[in-house]
C-alpha cells in the first residue's frame, strides 16, 4: 500500500504527467492515459470485503459480516468500477490542473465536452447510462427480463440509480455526506452524532417490549422479504480510502469511502470516544457526483440499486442474468429452480448452497462452542441477504418450493410447454402472487385505509411517464420503519404451537448467518409457526430499537456488535437525504418550526424536548428518526409521513410497471379472477408441513383453521387451449433465438 501511495504521489508530480497534460487539449486520445493511470492507482488500493476474509480466522467480526453480506454483485461491480475510474480520472486531472494553474479548479474547467465524452466512454461510464434498443429483444412483451431492462428502457432496472423525490443535500453540494464536515451547518445547527441520537432516543432493553395485539411477526418479516424485492443498495467496492489507503474496517479516520460512526461521550457501551463503529459509504452511480459533469444532468451524487424496482420476485430469481442462471435447475427441461442436493427438510426441499469461499456461514462451531460440529455453506437465493437471519431464510425456502410446485403443475397441465416456458410462466405467476398479497393484504395494514384511498385506489392502467425506480428516501428511510417491529427472538414452535423443547427460541443475534439451524435444527416449519402465531413487536415512542439490533447487530459471539439505528441514520446522511421538515413539506404535511409545534406533531413533550436538545431545530431531524417517532395514522402502523412516502412509492411501482398483473393483456380475465384469491396462507399450506394455522397470517390471533378448510388455488385458467402445433412452433422459435435456459 505504501509503495502504491508513493507511486501515486510520484506520478502526480512528475513531468511526464505535466507534459502529457499540457499537450492533451484537443487530443482526446491522450485522455486514455489518464484513465489508465487512474485504473492503476485505484485497482490495487481497493481491497474488497472478500479480501478481508482471505486471512483464515476463527471468527468473523460483525463488520466483516456486514461488509460481506452487502458486497456488490458481479454486474454491479462493473457499474461501480466505471464510476470509480471516471471519478479518479477527473480527480487526477483536477489536481494537475490546479498545480499547473496554481489555483484550485474544478475537474472539468479546462475540458472540452468531447474530452469528457471520451473519458466516459473509456471508463465504461457512458455504457452504463446509454439508452437501450429494446425492440430487438425477442419476446420482450411477453415476459419480464431478469434485470428489468426494457420494461421501460432502463427505468426500474437493476444497477441503476435510486430516484430522488426531493433534491439531494450534500455538505459540498455535490457528493460529501451531510455531517461529513462539522463546520457545515444546516438551518444554523451542526448535525448531532448519529450514535448520540441512537443512545438518547432509540435505546431500548430487550425485556418488557410492547407487543402488537393485532398483528403477527409474519407481518414484519414479510415486509423484510418484499423490501428485498425492491431495493438493495450497492456499497462501495473498496473498503479502503481511495486517496490514502486508509482501511475503513480498522481506522477511525474519515476519508472517502470510510465515514466512521463517531462515539459520543458517556456512551453506554464504548468507553473510548476515539473509537468508532465502522461504516463505508454506498457506491456512486455513473453520471452523478463528480462523474456527472458530462451528462448534462445535475451533478449531485446518487446511489445504485442493485435489484429491480418492480415487484417481480427478484429476490427469488435474481436481478442479473448470471445469477438467475445459477439459480435454475438446468439438468432437465422442466423449468425448475435448483434445490439443495445435500439436505432436505422432512421431505421438502431446501435452498441450494453457495460455493463461495470463504464460507461466512461456518458459524456453528463458534456459536455452539463445539469444534467437532458439521458446518454448512450459506444458502443461495436471488438476493444476497438470504442468510441474514433464519426467519428470512425460511420465507425464501417456502417460495422456492412454491416455484417448483407450480412448475410441476404446469408441466402436467401443458405437457407441450418447454422448460423455458414453464419457468417463465411460473415466474410470472409468483410475481403476480406477490403483487396481489402486497396490495390486498399487506399495504392496507401498514399505511391505513386513508393512504390506500389516496395513493392506491383503483388501478387505471400502465403509464409510461411514471418512473418506477425506487426512491432514495423510500429505501433509506421510509421502508426501514419495520426495524422497530422486529422481535428480539426468532420463535420456534412445535406442532402444538408451543415452544420447541429441543430447538427453543433463539436470540436474534444468534440467528445471523446460521443456515445450519435450518439444516440441523428442525427445518423451516418451527420458524414459520413462530412467525404466524407470535405478535410483532409494537413500535412505541418510548420502546424503539432493542439491543439485539442496536448493540448486537451481526455479533455472533464476543465481538462488539454494530448499531443498526446508527447505520440507518449515517446511511441517510451518506445519501444526502434532506431533514424531516423538507419531507413533511413534500407530503403536504405541517412543518413544525420549534419544540412546541414538534410536541403537537409527535404528541409527546419529552420526546420533542430531547429531539430539540440534539438537533436544535425540527428541520434537521434525520428523516428516518422523525418518521418512526410519529404516532400511527388511523388503522395503520406508520405515521403520516411514512404513509405518504410508502404510498407514493407503491403507486409508482404499480402504475409504471408494464407487466403489472392487472394490466390488460398480461393475464387473461379468468387468470386475474383466480389470482385475486391467492394469500400467504395458501403458500404456507402448500409448501410446509404446517396444516393448522391462523385464518389470516398477518393477524395475531389464537384461532386456528385447517388447511383443508381453504379452497386450493386453482390453476385451470392456465390450461393452454391453443393447439399443440402452435406451441411446437413457439418452442422452436424460442429454441432458435436463445440458448437453453436463457431468457427468450
Ligand atoms: C429481522 C431483522 C433485520 C435485520 C437484522 C436487518 C438488518 C439490516 C441492515 C444491517 C441493513 C443495512 C443498514 C445500512 O448499513 O445501511 C438493513 C437495511 C434495510 N432494511 Fe433491514 N433488517 C431487518 C429487518 C427489516 C425489516 C422487517 C424491514 C422492512 C419491512 C427491513 C427493511 C430494510 C430496508 C428497506 C433496508 C435498506 C435496503 C437497501 O436498500 O440496501 N429490514 N437492514
Ligand atoms: Ca424486484
From TrEMBL:
Binding-site list for heme b: 483
One Pfam family, short name: An_peroxidase
GO biological process, one term: response to oxidative stress
Cofactor(s) annotated in UniProt: heme b
UniProt cross-references to Gene3D superfamilies, sorted A to Z: Haem peroxidase domain superfamily, animal type (1.10.640.10)
Keywords (A to Z) from UniProt: Disulfide bond, Heme, Iron, Metal-binding, Oxidoreductase, Signal
Superkingdom in the source lineage: Eukaryota
Molecular function in Gene Ontology: heme binding; metal ion binding; peroxidase activity
The keyword Mitochondrion appears for this protein: no
InterPro entries the UniProt entry points to: Haem_peroxidase_animal, Haem_peroxidase_sf, Haem_peroxidase_sf_animal
One GO location term (cellular component): extracellular space
PANTHER family the UniProt entry points to: EOSINOPHIL PEROXIDASE, OXIDASE/PEROXIDASE
Family according to the record: Belongs to the peroxidase family. XPO subfamily.
Official protein name in the record: Myeloid-specific peroxidase
